[in-house]
Amino acid sequence: MPARKLRKVRNVHIGSVAVMKCAVGITSVGSAGVKTLDRRFIAIGIRHDLPTFNAMTKELPDTPERADPPEPQGICKDISRSAIFLVATLSSDTDAIEKVRAWTGDIAALVRAVGKRVPAGNLSCVCGFGSDAWDTLFGTPRPARLHPFREFGSGERRAIATPGDILLHIRAEHMDLCFELATQLLAPLGDAVTVVDEVHGFRYFDMRDLVGFVDGTENPAGREAVQFTLIGDEDPDFESGSYVLVQKYLHDMAGWNALPVETQELIIGRKKLSDIELDDAVKPSRSHSSLTTLTENGKEVKILRDNMSFGRPGSNEFGTYFIGYARSPAPIEQMLENMFVGRPPGNYDRLLDYSRAVTGSLYFVPSATQLDELADREPQPAAAVETPSDTSSSTEPHHEHEGSLNIGSLKGLTGFTQGNRPT
Questions:
Q1: Is the dihedral of CA 350, 354, 358, 360 positive or negative?
Q2: Each residue of 324-341: pLDDT tens digit?
Q3: What phi, psi does 267 have (nearest 5°)?
Q4: 170: Cβ–Cβ under 8 A, 6 or more apart, which residues?
Q5: Cα–Cα distance list, 321 to 37, 84, 192, 245, 249 (Å)
Q6: pLDDT surpassing 80 at residue 38
Q7: Which residues share a beta bridge with 109?
Q8: What is the structure's pLDDT at 299?
Q9: Handedness of CA 116, 117, 119, 122 (dihedral sign)
Q10: What is the rounded CA–CA span in Å between residue 200 and residue 311?
């Protein structure tokens, strides 16, 4: 029998901080046991009712135990060398809907079964659902910030919305593991779903994308990654869930490679070889790194990227699959608005002169605990959710995300501002 995934263990109070040791994600556990798990110490809150460190020798007062939060899916796992991204649409047939709903309870077992073949392969899978699919499959309650993908920009420079009800983000050190898991996950679904986009991604040398620059330099890690990606008490029915936005970009490599390296560096905002940030005195405000840096109340707001390169040289296809996780879609959407519309409008990301978005979709990622439970859920009808107004012809920045994002201590958002630190 495959080993069961490890659940979170008890909280340990150290001074006034409650610290929890946890295993993050749906992770394969085989003969290597818990060594294959990504174990982290995560600060989950300040307890002002606890004594200070100097008073630890005294008897502690009785305090109510805090229930462990649900186990998240493998969002914050270490970067892998290979990935498969599957985007599927859902059949409207009643039997198909019931089949997909029941399938959600089998995902974790399939990951364990395939992963135990190569315990060191670091196999994982994240499953997300689009706005319409959530309503069809699960009804209410629904995630507070889940909505259809918003489009940005206009003409040739546009972040387009494309169909997508279910996202599978499969990761491992070796493509054969990704391939086998994708096969096993799709087999029981049959014609209940239609795969509308499939990308096999690879890690390109030292974490670079195909345009030659290091990707994801400012990714949060450890406790910070959890803080920025996992939903907390701002939406308690969906605690430990997340949102994920995906886009497929195709690059004009001939045009890009014709540029001098110095020009490429001004477009990106970093040195190409060393990955060092350009000095603020020379880095343009329209650089990719400037436009994708957000601050709130003087603190940077981050997302977690796990972008992958893909392509077919024989077909002159060279691309980057963008995937960003956050505890609210708002920061990712603001980054896209800055890139495609500009901040201020017209001051757009010049990388888009050489990279074109050909897909775009947004999903909610339930916790691993909730994903198991959704198989038995009796859906209640949900009210229709409209796509937030796009900015295809906007002349002013859109601030649909006014108000608090509840991202850790970054509360009270009154509009993102452009920062100086690149992501």
A1: negative
A2: 999 999 999 999 999 999
A3: -70, -40
A4: 83, 84, 85, 86, 123, 124, 125, 178, 181, 182, 185
A5: 26, 10, 25, 11, 6
A6: no
A7: none
A8: 93
A9: negative
A10: 9
- Distance, in Å, from the CA atom of 134 to the CA atom of 381, rounded to the nearest integer, reads 10
State the chain's mean pLDDT as an integer.
83
pTM of the shown model: 0.79
Decide if 177 contacts 114 (C-beta within 8 A). Answer: yes
Helix (H, G, I), strand (E, B) or coil at 129: strand
DSSP calls for 154-179: ETTEEE-----SEEEEEEESSHHHHH
Q: Are strands 11-14 and 152-154 parallel, antiparallel or unpaired?
A: unpaired
- Give CA–CA dist 12/29, Å, rounded: 25
State how far the Cα of 187 lies from the Cα of 116, in Å rounded to an integer: 19
Alpha helices per DSSP H over 213-360: 222-229, 253-257, 261-268, 288-291, 330-340
pLDDT attached to residue 378 = 82
d(CA 298, CA 302): 13
Q: Which of 376, 411, 415, 336 is nearest to 153 (CA)?
A: 336
Query: Which of 3-7, 144-148, 234-238, 285-289 has the lowest average pLDDT?
Result: 3-7
Tell me the two tokens of residue 290: 């400037």
Tokens of 221: 């890690």
Q: Where are the beta strands (DSSP E) in 130-253?
A: 152-154, 157-159, 166-172, 193-202, 242-251
Under 8 Å between Cβ of 361 and 245: yes
250-260 core/surface letters (b: 16 or more CB in 10 A; e: else):
bbebeebeeee
Q: Which residue has the tokens 């970067």?
A: 79
Question: What tokens appear for 114 in the block?
Answer: 């395939």
pLDDT value of position 225: 96
pLDDT at 62 over 80: no
Query: Which residue pairs from 345-349 have beta carbons closer than 8 angstroms and sit at least 24 positions apart in sequence?
Result: 345/394, 345/395, 345/396, 345/397, 347/285, 347/286, 347/291, 348/153, 348/157, 348/286, 348/291, 349/286, 349/287, 349/288, 349/291, 349/292
Domain boundaries, the chain: 11-53, 82-417
The SS3 call for residue 200 is strand
Catalytic positions are 215
CA dihedral (341, 342, 347, 348) positive or negative: negative
Length of the chain: 423
Rounded Cα distance between 298 and 285, Å, is 18
Buried b vs exposed e over 123-132: b needs ≥16 C-beta within 10 Å?
bbbbbbbbbb
